[in-house]
Amino acid sequence: MSLLLLLACGEAPEAERASPFVPLDELRLARRLSLDIRGVLPSAEELETAEASGAGSLVDGWMRDPRFEEHLADAFAEDWMLHTDRMRVDASEFGLSEEETWAYTRAFGDEPARLMARIVAEDRPWSEIVTGDTTVANDMLASLVPLDLVDGDDTRDWREARYLDGRPPLGVLATSGLWLRFPTTIFNYNRGRAAAIGRLLLCHDVLARPVPFAAAEGTSTEELAEAVASQSGCIACHAGLDPLASALFGFYPYEDLDGTELVTYHPDREVSGAELTGAAPGYFGTRLDGVAQLGDLVASDPRFPMCTARRTAERLWARPTDLDDLPELVGLRDTLQADDRYRPLLQAVLATPEYRAGGLVDGADEAAGDRYRPIRFVSPLTLRSAIEEATGFRWTWEGWDELDSDHTGYRLLLGGADGDLVRQPHYGPSVSRALVLRRLAQAAARTVVEADLAADPGARRLFSDLDLEDPSAAALDAELDALHLRLLATRPDPDRRAALRELWTGVRDAADTRTAWASVVTSLLRDPEFWTY
Amino acid sequence: MPGPSRRHLLGLAAAGLFVPRRLARAEGGSGRKFLFVFNAGGWDPSMVFAPVFSDQVDHGAGEVAAEEGGIAFTDAPSRPSVRRFFERWADRTCVVNGLQVPSLAHDVCTRLVMTGDARPSFDDWASLVAGLGGADRLLPNLHLSGPLFPNQFATASVRVGLVNQLPALALGTANQRMDGAPPAPDATVEALEEAWYRARVEEWGRGASGLRAELTAAERIALDRMEQMPGVADVLTVADPESLFEVSRVALRAMASGLCRTAMVGFGEGGNGDWDTHTRNQAQDSLFEELFATLDALLEELRASPGELGPSLLDETTVVVLSEMGRTPELNSSGGKDHWPWTSAMLVGSGVAGGRTVGAWTDGLGGELVDLRDGTARADGVTLLPGHLGATLLALADIDPGPWVAPEAGAVIEAVLADS
Q: What's the whole-model pTM score?
């Protein structure tokens, strides 16, 4: 009878099938959400709210937190690989010192990311990222490019600004930062930049397709230009790239190693593109009457919102998307398009099962594991902000931010990408990552212990107001529980608490009480539940 | 098409093979090691590997065609180290010419030449060899600089950093490079912390299955390696991070100590010049001179260093010298040369058919079709692609290329192999 019933009904609808994943509990979900929205750990009070009302109840408030914009800028920067230690021109080209190099590279690298983050934080239309007529700048950027700070609030590091060199209103496409990060050479004629637009904004990477070169039929500049326009293998890409490259000629430098040339807009060169690329300015088949049109064409390109949805989902699902995800991506795209706002898209992604998965049910197959990634790794920039917020420690050295650089820093060793020769992050366990985390945790722990010991009552950053030097047994246990909850968003079971107490006691006996607290915090900052989320 | 699997993305394929030990034994087969010297930016083959003096190729002043030990090259008075190199090492050197890298963008060409595929889910050759045939070493693929494509075998690669970051972390001296320099714990305290953390990792993985179990295993390996790092920090410390020779010596020392099977070193990444000479192509003159002078010194050091299995490390090591693309035959109006999809690679040392050039150039610096068996140009031959180079490297590493390089992407260039 049952078999007949099953045969008659066929496979159960998906909604009725057992879900292959187990959602995160509310505490760990709050931690994941807070790290992904603000780049910091939830406070003890926020964790209480998550338990009482659900972690989802915190999302709206966190998106109004100033750290939302900060973290979003970091997330965009990591996604677009905007933070590189090496620019086309060195800091010295602008008269800056070696110690200013990091600030210089990040001022330019951050500009597009900060602009996008500002647009989202102020809940402005997402299409403004390619149509807006302002940018944002910090003091370093403002000192190097021709712009005026129009935001009177000088308490903000990054203020609204307007370029003074006649560049068109193209949002990030009109930022000096984007085009210094993705420069052109004299003979590339902006084609690399056109490809970057496709890759970053449309998820259309023309360069990823291997080109079947025939035997060289010509070697002179003229013959190569002719091949670009006539050989099928060349036309396939250049027909789309060249008109777009042609539209960017206001940004084209006559000297590609001259800093001022590279960061200044040249309206008089807009007309040069047609001659040098052989293609009139255009956007994938649509001729441009003026370069200012470009932003509207990107914004109205169906690939633009789809690409935004896809990149956001991939970042927050911690995996690449594929065709199986298409229906869900279409829904996310529609959410973005409904009001041309990024926040609803972000909220929608954060509510997906893929985002909220915390484990797999017994017997779940590998495909489920591929779809619902239950564990993510904290990226270098999120690690930086989370550790700094929790402990006050930021690893800097001689002007360099060491978790956000490779020159002397540790981003590559943490599994990050330098955006140059290493373009794929790999945040899984490794010896270099383990070593960086150990030294980072040790330094951060000792910093916060010393600071909190010296702090006035009620002003401590991490610890409660207990007597750190001589806690009672009950106070010690309570503090261990609180630290565990704050840093890992889980409550220790008796065995774990006993193990932490044993560590504390052992170190106190071997050294002193403050060292004991530092060892406890070090251990929690290195914990697998800290560097995963 | 489904995306890469979870295991693939987490790079855990090589995890689980590492067993801590002081010295590594050689892998099965030859146990051959590989030092990759990657020249970022795109070198100009016509300045060394392509002595093509047709009216389609612009050469620098004084450049002439030369031949040494069976290898034809472009000689120039300003590059004495190139001639000296071939005089000394031609019998151990095989040049692969006319290699087509089917793109003109640096990042794509780098991916292609190092993985054989433009898609992002393939490991680079160094990681692949180390992951498949050296994962039980302490530092299977030593990444000092240059490209890295971490995928399935990501755990095989150990990143050292450009200025000795890894040894500084291992020894604790990294704490001195912190503003504010919080005090580091003393050895007793650190030992207690380490014991606690190890126990905690085991607790985290206890009873776990799937991803968490795999991560636990990978973290265990990382900790095992970490424990041994102070003992090898000296080996990994670069005397002069700006010097290709000094950086490469670290790789040699690590290979001689049995610590790694493959190593990657980049040259021309800013501090020591840039091969991407869209203006003033002649800047490559000094780069080639430095490169070949360094290679000469490195090979001498390899020859003088005892190997794991025999008297000379050179007999156990293949040095792979390559760049992601070539440069146009003719100069542009700025005296530079632009991107070109045909390039060369040079293999020196163990397992390589010395005194041999594989492939050939057309008058316009295109690649001729090639017979893979003898390396000569043949009308019914094949276009040499990065996959051919990769398959050949895998063969040299005693790894069947079949599962890793699709047949259409390339087969073994038998002419490169000494025992062909």
A: 0.93
Q: What is the DSSP pairing of strand A286-287 with strand B342-349?
A: unpaired
Q: CA of A125, closest CA in chain B: separation in Å?
A: 32
Mean pLDDT, residues B227-253: 95
Which residues have a Cβ under 8 Å from the Cβ of A363 and sit 6 or more positions away?
Answer: none
A43 in Cβ contact with A15 (< 8 Å): no
Asked if A184 and A242 touch (Cβ cutoff 8 Å), the reply is no
* Structure tokens given for B114: 């190092």
B108, A208: Cβ pair inside 8 Å?
A: yes
Label residue A241 exposed, middle or buried (CB < 10 Å: 0-12, 13-18, 19+).
buried
Tell me which residue in B158, B162, B338 faces A431 most closely, judged by beta carbons: B158
Q: Is the ipTM of this complex over 0.85?
A: yes
- Interval B7-56: pLDDT, tens: 555 666 666 555 544 334 445 567 899 999 999 999 999 999 999 999 99
Whether A489 and A41 have beta carbons less than 8 Å apart is answered as: yes
Chain A CB contacts of B212 below 8 Å: 374-375
Residue in A217, A374, A428 closest to B12 by CB: A428
User: Rounded to whole angstroms, how far apart are CA atoms A105 and A488?
Assistant: 33
Contact B148 A421 (CB under 8 A): yes
Q: What is the mean pLDDT of residues A522-530?
A: 98
List, in sequence order, every beta strand (DSSP E) within B302-341: 317-323, 326-327, 339-340
pLDDT tens for residues A378-437?
Answer: 999 999 999 999 999 999 999 999 999 999 999 999 999 999 999 999 999 999 999 999
Judge: B6–A373 Cβ closer than 8 Å, yes or no: yes
Using CA atoms, how far apart are residues A481 and A261, in angstroms rounded to an integer? Answer: 58
Q: How far is CA A130 from CA A53, A168, A170, A172, A329, in A?
A: 38, 10, 5, 6, 22
Which residues 321-340 in chain A show a CB within 8 A of chain B? 321-324
The answer to whether the Cα torsion of B112, B113, B116, B122 is positive or negative is negative
Q: How confident is the model at residue B369 (pLDDT cuts 50, 70, 90)?
A: very high
The whole-angstrom separation of Cα B361 and Cα B415 is 17
